[in-house]
Amino acid sequence: MTDDHATLSDSLLARRYFAKFDAITGHLGRVAAELEAEGRLGRLEARVIGGYVQRLAATFRALSHKYLMTGRLEGALPGAPTFDRHESGFPIAQELMLMAVDAQHAVQHLAGMAAEAELKDRMVRQIVGDLTVPTQLQFALSQRLYYEALKAGGLFQARNDPDAQWVADVGDRRRFLVHWAVYDTQTNLPAVYLLEVEDTGRRPFPTDDRRWPQAQAHLMAQSLAGLKLVTIAMGFDRDFADLYPRRLRRITLGPMYSHSFTLQSGPIAEVLTNAMAPTGEDWALVWTIEDLISDREEEVKDGWFSTALRQVWRLDPVNGGETGATRLERMMILPERPYQALAELNPPGFANIRKFVVGAGGRLIPAR
């Protein structure tokens, strides 16, 4: 626990918090679709990102069930959800780690619980017969829904191992899109990685028992927010002789800023304060895309008597040394009231951030 972490010990606050994320994750999928329509993402890439967003939404829904009765009962309960209120706004990574442990025992827990229909019937009988609120039964039902979600799977875990999909054949090479995701333990933010790689091996490397497990382990070990993309890409290029990384992207979902829940400073704090938005609309979420593209390949000496092809990466001529990427783009998703406050304040540094405004009925409006 650090000063940046906060717990939601009130059930109403916890429900509002998870309801906010339920709405936000719905908008994230539409942003990916908009970027695909603009040609910024390919169909496969948009589908991959959308899949991770759906898994993230399922994870937050599972946590909302787990903590549904926070503050309503005393005793040995799951406690209260903890989130990073400073530079994240998301639940802390330990919440996902505990969820992974709970998932290992989901079947065992469900076997010892009454069915959902039976729990609801007992609730009705207690309300009508005893004229009391069935809080203990409500808690039992919330835990059943939580373990059912864990059993169903399809959740965003702290580590989501690499998967690969064939894209095309380019000459004598096979091109794959390798994707994976992590919930970074330092930033408490989810990040999705997309790696375009060309393969000259005898067998397609996702089905190669020698290379694929090693590539998976390598990529997961390098998936740290503190590492620049060029560092990750150069390491992969060096360690796999017949694999040629051509493009690497990292999409960081967050931070999420909320006047009700997070601590922020600078212009974004003034924007959310001035917006005076109603409950559920007092937020803004930043989406960052780091993109590293190979400029060309060159032959370099590799040992005493051999050579190897290595990528020459195209770095941003102004900030490439700092970012380690070809380009870096930030986007912001926010409801109408905060967007109006942002437009009126017009703080420096926000002009180049692409904005997506959530309008009436959840309609997504691209803006500048």
List the helices and strands and how they pair.
Elements: E1 5-7, H1 11-37, H2 43-66, E2 82-84, H3 93-104, H4 106-111, H5 116-130, H6 135-152, E3 159-170, E4 173-183, E5 190-199, H7 211-221, H8 229-239, E6 243-258, H9 267-275, E7 283-301, E8 307-314, H10 320-323, E9 327-335, H11 336-345, E10 354-358, E11 364-367
Parallel strand pairs: 9-10
Antiparallel strand pairs: 1-2, 3-4, 4-5, 5-6, 6-7, 7-8, 7-9, 10-11
Helix pairs in contact: 1-2, 2-6, 5-6, 9-11
Description of the structure:
This protein has helices at residues 11-37, 43-66, 93-104, 106-111, 116-130, 135-152, 211-221, 229-239, 267-275, 320-323, 336-345, and strands spanning 5-7, 82-84, 159-170, 173-183, 190-199, 243-258, 283-301, 307-314, 327-335, 354-358, 364-367. The protein is an alpha+beta fold. The chain has two domains: 5-152, no CATH class; 159-367. Strands 3, 4, 5, 6, 7, 8, 9, 10 and 11 form a nine-stranded mixed sheet that branches. The chain has a two-stranded antiparallel ribbon with strand order 1-2. A hairpin with a 6-residue loop joins strand 4 and strand 5. Helix 1 packs antiparallel against helix 2 (43-66).
Summary, kept brief:
The protein is an alpha+beta fold and 368 residues long.
Give the amount of beta strand, in percent: 25-35%
Count of the separate structural domains:
2
N-to-C series of helices and strands: EHHEHHHHEEEHHEHEEHEHEE
- Tally of helical runs: 11
Reported for the largest beta sheet, the result is:
9 strands, mixed
Parts with pLDDT < 50 across at least 5 consecutive residues: none
Mean pLDDT: 93
Query: What characteristic shape results from the CA principal axes?
Result: globular
| Content-based structural category | alpha+beta
Q: Could you tell me the number of beta strands?
A: 11
The separation of the N and C termini measures 38 Å
Helix content: 25-40%
Radius of gyration (Å): 23 Å
